[in-house]
Amino acid sequence: MGRVLLIFRLVLADVRRHPTQAVILLISITAATAMLGLGGSLHGATQALYQKTRAATAGPDVVAFAPGTGRTAIKTLTSLEHVPGVLTHSGPYREYYTKLTAHGSTGAAVAQVADMTPGPVDRPLVTSGHWIRPGGVVVERGFATALGVHVGDHVTVAGRSLPVVGIAVTAAHAVYPWAPGIGPGGGPSDGGGLIWLNERDTRALESAADTSVTSFIDLKLRDPGTALAWHRNPAVTSAIGDRWVNVRAWQLIAEQDSLMLKGSQPILVIGSWLLAFLAIAGVATLAAGRAARQTRRVGLLKAVGATPGLIAAVLLTEYLTLALLADALGLITARLIQPAIINPSAGLITTATGPTGTTIAVTTVVALGVAALTSLGPVVRALRTETVAALADTAHRPQHRAHLTRLSALLPTPLLLGLRLIARRPGRAVLHACDTAATLTTITGLLMIYAQPAKGYPGSSMANHLRDAQEHHVILAVTAALVALAAINTVTITWTTAQDARPTMAIARTLGATPGQITAGLSAAQLLPTLPGALAGIPLGIILCLPFSTANTTWPPAWSLLGAALAALPATAALTAVPARVAAHRSVAHTLSAEAT
Amino acid sequence: MDESGDVLRVRDLYKEHGHHESLVRAVDGIDLDVPTGQMLAVMGPSGCGKSTLLHLLGGLERPTDGEVWLAGRRIDTISERGLARLRRRAVGFVFQAFHLVEELSAAENVELPVLLAGGSPRAARRRAALLLERFGLADRARHLPWQLSGGQRQRVAIARAVANRPHVLLADEPTGNLDTTATLDVLRVFEDLRAAGQTLVIVTHDERVAATADRLISMRDGMFVDDTRLAGSTTGRLDGLIRLED
Lengths: 597, 246
Description:
The structure holds 2 protein chains of 2 kinds. By secondary structure, chain A is an alpha+beta fold. Chain A contains 20 helices and 10 strands. Chain A has helices at residues 2-17, 19-42, 45-56, 71-79, 141-147, 203-207, 234-240, 250-258, 264-303, 308-342, 357-384, 387-392, 402-408, 413-424, 426-451, 461-500, 502-510, 515-545, 558-584, 588-596; strands at 62-67, 86-102, 105-113, 125-129, 137-140, 154-157, 160-169, 193-197, 212-221, 246-249. Chain A has a 6-stranded mixed β-barrel. By secondary structure, chain B is α/β, with parallel strands linked by helices. Chain B has one domain (6-245): CATH 3.40.50.300. Chain B is built from 8 helices and 10 strands. In chain B, helix 3 crosses helix 4 (121-134), helix 3 packs parallel to helix 5 and helix 5 runs parallel beside helix 6. The relative contact order of chain B is 0.17. Chain A: It is a multi-pass membrane protein. Chain A: One of its GO terms (molecular function) is transmembrane transporter activity. Chain A: Pfam families: FtsX (PF02687), MacB_PCD (PF12704).
């Protein structure tokens, strides 16, 4: 117990002494695990939401569509009620292909004639307002969200203004913009939203000469698992005969809902790995920056009789505890963001499904792996250092790099200092170059996605537009997260470089280097690896995009890629300016006095 | 240099640390004139303000009040950049802890101030080779600081301090970390520099070092309590001292 308490006290004291480092470590790992958790939980998440919506709305197992409202069509649909295995039904209903105008924008829509009291199958769940009443319209939630419509607003359907009395979700139709199911005359659908109207309010639609109509019936089967093959059932084929009927099983509706995420999932998964890499780089920078101080601390602990086991426990507990905390924070963040990603149209019941056991296991392994990989090396080195050497901090002597030193002598003072700082700890420069490369890889992906023209027919132009928007949102969010983490890493690297080189920079000041030259030197140490990193990121991004490209893929103009790479330089300069300036203006006398003790 | 020939001139110099109850007056109303070519030793107990005085003379710290003139120029009012430029040419520092750049060889350490002052790499190399030869370190030019003995490290530090031929060399306990042999090696270097006309201000606890100076100032509580001219100290004293140590 005493041993555990001692470890706890030492860990807590260290976190209190270096709170910024603990926060950076938390942010880095949280960002990576959040993205990883999000990417991992996407698989099957929309289907899970669909299942919940289906259960809450008594969703049909099968929806059968027949073009028109003729007697034959209605007779065929009603004949399906009697097919063996059908438990219950609602309908047949009519849906009219029309346009809906709200807040000045017009969208394609299907207006379903609905009962004042819904039947036993497909009982839409009203999420705000109430169910239809004469003279009022209920708008499907995905459609309402896209149009920015709320209860109490007025919408125009077939030239008639109607108040929105409710917003509802259903599992009988695919989410916006795939609500129509089939197009007019049984053809393909151009997509659109869903509204429910009372019978009386559809008369204007009925009388309009150019309005097409489709009839459909919702069926509940004894065995929902057979819905996919139901249309091949001999009783069904016999009931349909040679009439045109489109049978849609609930599994196909659920699959249609997932289409929205087709492009988003690879973005999130690749983005999460790039973020995990940046987290590793960030934590490695922190760990390396603390290595010297840590060695001295190990020396002190050894000197007072701490065993290697106790010292290792103290050093690793801090990183591993913070990693576990970051993992939990990442998973919570993923859970909070998840509904917006997996239910972009808001057409399904919005509840986060939460990460699966596998996702939790993967993110935890990654979080602990990042912490262990980056801290284990310095810990082992510190433990293997002799006590006296550790106390004197001679274990982390930088290597002499004669070639770089000679080369730097030819350069102006800021570059001379910058190159010599790189020569001190070249690993740090490599990490920074890799950070920049990872960021530029994602920015290239962003430019690639934005360079693609809006997808058109076949399918649904409206659906494609929405899917494009979803992909744009996801890549923007991933890029923003990567840029933010890379920015944190750049500031961390600059600060740890400044901390590590504090005596050297103080000596340079005594020899006549100005604070401006020191600031510029510290910035140059980050800028020099930025350029190769940025230039490497562009081809890496293109290579990552290749598996998703086709012959029709539009490549972004070369100037935009080159511009993005070059923009990394002023961005790095801006990020490094403040920490470099703060470090450069430290009192030389104090620094040298502290180093002498 | 000012008209009087003093390379350093200090008037009514104060340096305070802290506030209110915790106020410490490290330097308390000092006046000082150091003529060109003088070797001045400042002695006193730990914490009496010797090192702070040295930092003020070299522009590493700013005084709370008073004036510091270096080579005819008032330095307590100039900008950080101006001070840095002044240090390139006018001041050389030597510290007790050597403060060599660990990842640079002895020669590269000596080249550094020349490069920072805008000298060409060739000029820097030539100057470093010359100084290391002069201080008996030619065969150690490629060694890294940790491969050198304490005395060798301090001689490299002195070579670095004088690389740009400064008006004044400020040394803070230059023999504090050295054994007798190394101390004598360093004293020989100082003797050599003084003979060449170099102005030296040395803060020290070591009476052997003080004994080689032209002038000895004793400090207590931030003030000068004694200022002694050591007549005839320019020749012979170090040799006598070496014989005594032997």
